[in-house]
Amino acid sequence: MARAASAAGASVVVAARRVERLRDLAGELPSATAVRCDVAVDEDRVRLIETALDRYGRLDGLVNNAGVSEPGPASREAVETFRRQLEINLVAPFALAALAARAMRELPGSARSIVNVSSIMGLRSTAPMPEAGYVASKAGLIGLTRELASQWGRHRIRVNALAPGFFPSEMTDGLVSADGGAPHWITGGTPLGRLGRPEDLDGALVFLLSAAASFVTGHTLVVDGGFTTR
Ligand SMILES: NC(=O)c1ccc[n+]([C@@H]2O[C@H](COP(=O)([O-])OP(=O)(O)OC[C@H]3O[C@@H](n4cnc5c(N)ncnc54)[C@H](OP(=O)(O)O)[C@@H]3O)[C@@H](O)[C@H]2O)c1
Question: I need a labelling partner for 125 at 20 to 30 A (CA). Which of 8, 64, 75, 139 fits?
Fold first, then answer.
C-alpha cells in the first residue's frame, strides 16, 4: 500500500512496531518516513500524526491497515483475545481517524481521505474457519466507516473501507501461501480462481485516496476475486 501510494505521487509515512522493516521500505521510496508506532497506544498515535505534520506540513490521507487475527472457536475464545482484536482492528482506527480528521480540517487544500482496511470477514462469517473477534472487529469497522463518512462529509472528509478477500501475508501464513497454495474452499469458492496478489489492492486503494473518488464516501470496496458473490 505504501508503494502504491508512493507511485501515485504521495509522500508516505509508514507506521508499525517493527521499525527496521519500515526503514527498509521507506528507503526504497522517493519520499517516505518510518515511524515506530503501536496503534494501541495513545501517545504513539499522537506522535504518528504529529510526525507526519512536522515532516510534510499536511495530511491528505490516512490508511488504517494495521490488523491482527486470532482464529479459534468462539466457545473457547477468551474475552481478552476478543478484546485485543477489537482494540487493534477497531478502536485504534477510530482514534487515528479522529486525530487525522482534526488535522485535515485545519489544513486548507488537503485531500481529506480516510481508508479503513476491513475484510470480507466483516461482511460474512469466516466459516469454515471460526474467528468471532476478527469478524466483530471488521464488521464494526465497516459500520464505523459509514458513520464517520456521515458525520464528516460536511468537513469534506471522505471515509471509505476496503474489504480484501484472501491474500498471502504473515497474517494468513499457514492458511494460504505466496505461491498460490490454498485450501479448495478458498480457490474453488473464488470465481477468479486464485488468491489475491498484493498489487490487486493498489488500484482500489489509490482510487479511494485520490480525486478519482471525489464523490465516494461511506463505501466498502470489496477486492476478493468474487468470493463474496457465492
Ligand atoms: N491477508 C489477508 O488475506 C487479508 C484479508 C482481509 C483483510 N486483511 C487486513 O489487511 C490488513 C493487513 O493485513 P496483512 O494480511 O498484511 O497482515 P500482516 O502481514 O500480519 O500485517 C499486519 C500489519 O499490521 C501491523 N500491526 C499489527 N499490530 C500492530 C500494532 N499494535 N501497532 C502497529 N502496527 C501493528 C504489523 O506490523 P508490526 O507487527 O511490525 O507492528 C503488520 O505490518 C489487516 O487489517 C487485515 O485484517 C488481510
Answer: 64
Q: Which atom of ligand 1 is nearest to the CA of 134?
A: 47
CA dist., res. 148 & res. 101, Å (int):
10
3 state SS of 135: helix
Asked if the peptide bond before residue 128 counts as cis, ω within 30 degrees of 0, the response is yes
Instruction: Name the pTM for this structure.
Output: 0.98
Strand partners, 58: none
* Dihedral angle of Cα 1, 198, 158, 30, to the nearest 10 degrees: 20
* Average pLDDT rounded to a whole number, residues 87-94: 98
Cα of 2 to ligand 1 centre, how many Å? 13
Predicted confidence (pLDDT) per residue in 32-89, tens digit = 999 999 999 999 999 999 999 999 999 999 999 999 999 999 999 999 999 999 999 9
What is d(CA 87, CA 81) in angstroms, rounded to the nearest whole number?
A: 10
Would you kindly state where each structural domain of the chain is located, as residue ranges?
Answer: 60-229
- Say how far apart CA 178 and CA 197 lie, in whole Å: 9
Which of 24, 43, 63, 65 maximizes ligand 1 atoms within 8 Å of its Cβ, making it the mutation to test the pocket? 65
60-229 carries CATH number 3.40.190.10:
no
Annotated catalytic residue, options 134, 152, 166, 227: 134
